[in-house]
Amino acid sequence: MKIGLVSDTHGYLDPRLPNLLVGVDSILHAGDVGSSAVLGELERIADLRVVRGNVDPAELNLPPSLKLRFENVQIEIQHQLQVPQEELEKWADGSPLQKQNPQRQAEFLESFDPKTKVVVFGHSHRPCLLTMGHKLFFNPGSSGKKRFSLPRCFGILEVFPRGLRGLIIGLEGQDEGLPGSVWLPLGE
Q: The pTM is what?
């Protein structure tokens, strides 16, 4: 199974994105959609599941979070994590910050359903792809118009019988700064 991940479109759907998402079984949007037109275009490509971002208008009627299952893999989607993305990245790379407050990291991981294998989020506009606590944390970055100096990108999540593979794909050509692919084995 192949799932397309997008976030932070802010009312703009890159004209290349529909062709790049051809063949996905589902699309998950991690919020800050910006308009019903973006939702309509994405729905034409594949089954679409969306959460509300901090700037989404109430009339889009989007839930703040979702918990979904794809081929026995549970995925949680939310726009913004309870901790800043920078902190999550430091925990994953084993920086000294992790040793300063291990309780905060443990509480963060315990805030997710134990059955959850993937947490999809957005908000920062910065792609993030890492594993921690036997979970894949996946921010596909922003696929809307260029903001700040961040790359424009989206993600692909592939579900296999023995594991999950996450991949970030740039919308502006090759970008060495994007995270590589990540493999998370399934099975306990």
A: 0.93
* 3-state SS track over 72-98: CEEEEEECCCCCCHHHHHHHHCCCHHH
The answer to whether 125 and 140 have CB atoms below 8 angstroms apart is no
Type of residue found at 20 = L
Q: What is the mean pLDDT of residues 168-186?
A: 86
- Spatial contact of 10 and 145, defined as CB atoms under 8 Å apart: yes
pLDDT tens, 115-128? 999 999 999 999 99
Per the document, the length of the chain is 188
pLDDT value at residue 95: 62
41-123-108 Cα angle (round to 5): 125
Quote the CA–CA distance of 130 and 48 in Å, as a whole number.
Answer: 24
